Structures are given as C-alpha cells and as structure tokens.
Amino acid sequence: MTQYMLSVHHRVGDPVPSEDEIQPIFEAVDRFNNKITAEGIWVFGGGLEPRETAVTVDNTGAEAVVSDGPFAESKEWLGGFWVIEAPDLETAVALAKEASAACAGQVEVRPFQAE
Amino acid sequence: MNAHEAIERIYREEYGRVVASLVRRFGDIDIAEEAAGEALLVAMERWPEDGVPPNPGGWLTTTAGRRAIDRIRRESHRDAKHQAALMIEDDTPHEPTGIVEDDRLRLIFTCCHPALAPEVRVALTLRLLGGLTVAEIAQAFLVPETTMAQRITRAKKKIKDANIPYRVPAPEDLTARLGGVLAVVYLVFNEGYLASSSGAPIREELTAEAIRLGRILRTLLPDEPEVAGLLALMLLTEARRRTRVAGGELIPLHEQDRGGWDRELIAEGHALVRECLARNRPGQYQLLAAVNAVHTDAPAAGDTDWSQIAALYGQLYAIAPTPIVALNRAVAVAELDGPEVALAEVDRLQLTTYHAWHATRADLLRRLGRSAEARAAYDAAISATENEAERAYLSRRRGSLAP
C-alpha cells in the first residue's frame, strides 16, 4: 500500500463559484469522502482557508522569523487535499478522477515517501 | 558467429520474458535486471561446455531467480516484500493477467504508463522488453549515454516511488491504454524507418525491434484489431525497405523497384489486413495498413488504385482529423483530380515546419510548371529535414527543375 496526496490547486483568474454553484460541489465532495472512508481508503483531508490566512515560519537561521502571508506569492496555490492509501498508482488515479469530478477542479496525484 | 555471440543473441531474444517474469516475482525492476545480468554471466560460463539448454528462457529465468534470492538474503535490510519473495519456491504462483498470462504484457503496460513522459516510455520499452543496452538506446536517439542512463533510472524510480503497478489494465481501460503502447511501438518503428536525424537514413535495429514487439503483442492480444493493424502496417512498410534508399538517396514509392520488395512480408501483411477487414472495427493503424496494402498490391506505380487510397485517407481523417492525414489524402487527390486541386488543399494546411509538406508542395508546383515556386519549396523541404538520403533526393529533384 502506498499513501498518495491528491491535491487541489487554485489559480489566479479561476472563476469563483456562486453560493448556488458551490452547494452541489460540497455535496459531491461529501459523497466522495463518505465512500472512501467506508472503503478504508481515506487517511486525512480537507479544504484550506484562503492563503491570506497563512503565516510563514522560518527557523533555519539564528532566530525564528514569523511572517504574515504564504510561503510563495505564486499564481497557483493549494486549496485543499486528500491523503489516501491505495494499492498502486492506477487505483490512486482512478480515485483522483472521482475526486476531480466531485470538487470540480484539477487534482494532482503524488506519492508519499516510503517509510 | 562464435559461442559468446550466439549466447548474447539468445539472451537478447529472451531478455523481455526473463525480466518480466522476475519483475512480477520480486516486484522490483532493478533486482530483475541485475539478476538477469548475472544469469547471462553464468550462461557464458556454462553453455559453451554444457551446450545451450533446451529451454534457454526458462533456464535463464530460473538461474536469475536463484541469484536474486541469494542477493536478497545477503542484503537482509531489504523490506518485507522482498523477504516475502524468499518464501516462493517456484515460479508458478502469479495472478493471471486477465486476458493472457504473460508477464511481458504487464511490463509493457507499465513501461508505457501515461504517468511517464513519452520519450521515457520508448526508452524503457526498448530496455526492458527489447533487451537493448542503454548505450544502444542512447545511440538510437542520439543522446549521450549518461543522459539516457539518467532518464531510465529516473523512470524506474518513479515506477517504484509512485507504485505504478505491473498489471494489464481493466477491460474498460484497455483500449485507451493499448493506444499508448501501440504509439510507442510505432514511434520506435518510424524512428528506424525514417530517422529524423543525420547519420544512417534507416536504422534497421529499430525497425526490427518494433516488428518484434508488434509480433509479441499480436500473440498476446490476438483479438485486438489495432494490434493486427499496426503489425500489418509495419510489415508492409518494412517490405519495401531494401528499395527505399539507393546510392545514398531516398527513392520515392513510385520510383522503387517493385521486384525488390519482400513478397513474404507483403503476403503476411495482406493476410492481416484481410483479417482486419473481416472484423470491421477500423482504427487508424488498420486504415494506414490498408493504404499500404493498396500500394503493395499494384504491380507497377501506374496501376495504383488512387481512389481507394483517397477513400481510406478520408475514412482516417474522420477518426483522426490531423493536417498530416489531410496532406496524405491530398497526394492521392493529385493523382485523381490533378495537381492544381491538390495544391489548393495542401496550401490550406500550413504545416510549415514539416518537411513532407514542403516536399509535397514542391512536387505539385513542379508538375504545374511553376519552377521558381517549386525551387523555393524544395529549399524549404531540404532545410526542414536532417535525413541525408532525403536531402539528396530533394536536391536532385530541385536540380531537375526546368529553368
């Protein structure tokens, strides 16, 4: 078994869904979450608050520096993710297809390092 | 051929089967390759004295399997999966592949997995299924050996880290995934048949390898019409290889000495095309094979059934509407409706970086007596290809233009 992160990214210029549009997405994601929980695939997951809420901590120097804002001012940023456990990439990709349809966004599949 | 060369040849023939079986058993490409390499050394030592065993592939697999187990025993830090492999006493227990039980089929789907970059799929397939050395693959694609070695190492690491399975896809995904495998085989063939680069105009080792892979796929998936179509296409193209270059110059189809075509390959290709027609589930490789069947059916260039060829390209365009298909169709149209009609079609395509587009335009302009424009088009075609034999042909045509 391998753990994979299925991550959902937002881009500058992506249309912001209205309240009416977002409701069915929430419901679809809920259904997907329930399904993978029941099948024992779910490890962890969730949506993130907007990146303005981020704080970046750097304790690599003499003194820790805490600064307001995300690590990188980029045109793409992480919106949320799932961590799943699957027997192989094929299975993870099949789940990512469902996840992408449910959350109405592109999903990146990436394996975790083996222990 | 001396004894060692004979053994190396057998080893290369059997390599895909041996490695695929070891990958299935040990779940690790590196272990499989190392063990296969060790088995070769043992064969080099024993076979010249004991003679080649009746089933050399089986012998190599068994020997390599023992070596792999020895290695895993020595390196006790290997993880549980490899330890588990020690429990397996023989080669028999493995999950059926679903359609046919052949480890090579699983492995080719792994090598051609969409999670890998296309150029990496080609390299891995040639390395693991074709048994070509990294140096040979590097040479075939004109990259330094270290670059190719790195590319292959990274791909194997990705297969391991991302846990890309050794499995034939489920029936509902098979057709789509098979398309990726066939594309890799055809790419290998094409690179051999019309090398995009300078150096040898035809790389026989690549066309031969692609046909060998095509034959393996055909044995493994006898009911997939596109597999038969691709094999037929390669055979009917290969049949003309000997007549395709003369004196360092590319000879176009209509000038080739048809007596020099390989009748055996043509007969085999035609039989496959007939089989595809009977199945009536056309696809792009089958249609291209049918085009080649029409060409190889004509005793002389003047006997070619161009309306049939135009119709086949029309059918192909309906499935794969690419400008290259349209260009090929226009070549048939030139024979049916004249060069002027064809030129109008070709000019709409604007494949300005494609040498064949310029070469086709040049020929049509030449036939229309528009020499100055034809000359410019030949120049553009010559600068768009690195293949020396093709450049030589185009230069001759340009030289024969009326002033």
TrEMBL record, chain A:
<feature type="domain" description="YCII-related">
    <location>
        <begin position="19"/>
        <end position="111"/>
    </location>
</feature>
<dbReference type="InterPro" id="IPR005545">
    <property type="entry name" value="YCII"/>
</dbReference>
<protein>
    <submittedName>
        <fullName>YciI family protein</fullName>
    </submittedName>
</protein>
<comment type="similarity">
    <text>Belongs to the YciI family.</text>
</comment>
<dbReference type="InterPro" id="IPR011008">
    <property type="entry name" value="Dimeric_a/b-barrel"/>
</dbReference>
<dbReference type="Pfam" id="PF03795">
    <property type="entry name" value="YCII"/>
</dbReference>
Automatic annotation (TrEMBL), chain B:
<feature type="domain" description="RNA polymerase sigma-70 region 2">
    <location>
        <begin position="11"/>
        <end position="76"/>
    </location>
</feature>
<feature type="domain" description="RNA polymerase sigma factor 70 region 4 type 2">
    <location>
        <begin position="108"/>
        <end position="159"/>
    </location>
</feature>
<dbReference type="InterPro" id="IPR011990">
    <property type="entry name" value="TPR-like_helical_dom_sf"/>
</dbReference>
<dbReference type="Pfam" id="PF20239">
    <property type="entry name" value="DUF6596"/>
</dbReference>
<dbReference type="InterPro" id="IPR036388">
    <property type="entry name" value="WH-like_DNA-bd_sf"/>
</dbReference>
<dbReference type="InterPro" id="IPR013324">
    <property type="entry name" value="RNA_pol_sigma_r3/r4-like"/>
</dbReference>
<keyword id="KW-0805">Transcription regulation</keyword>
<comment type="similarity">
    <text>Belongs to the sigma-70 factor family. ECF subfamily.</text>
</comment>
<dbReference type="InterPro" id="IPR013325">
    <property type="entry name" value="RNA_pol_sigma_r2"/>
</dbReference>
<dbReference type="InterPro" id="IPR014284">
    <property type="entry name" value="RNA_pol_sigma-70_dom"/>
</dbReference>
<dbReference type="InterPro" id="IPR046531">
    <property type="entry name" value="DUF6596"/>
</dbReference>
<dbReference type="InterPro" id="IPR013249">
    <property type="entry name" value="RNA_pol_sigma70_r4_t2"/>
</dbReference>
<feature type="domain" description="DUF6596">
    <location>
        <begin position="177"/>
        <end position="275"/>
    </location>
</feature>
<dbReference type="Pfam" id="PF08281">
    <property type="entry name" value="Sigma70_r4_2"/>
</dbReference>
<dbReference type="Pfam" id="PF04542">
    <property type="entry name" value="Sigma70_r2"/>
</dbReference>
<protein>
    <submittedName>
        <fullName>RNA polymerase sigma factor</fullName>
    </submittedName>
</protein>
<keyword id="KW-0804">Transcription</keyword>
<dbReference type="InterPro" id="IPR007627">
    <property type="entry name" value="RNA_pol_sigma70_r2"/>
</dbReference>
<keyword id="KW-0731">Sigma factor</keyword>
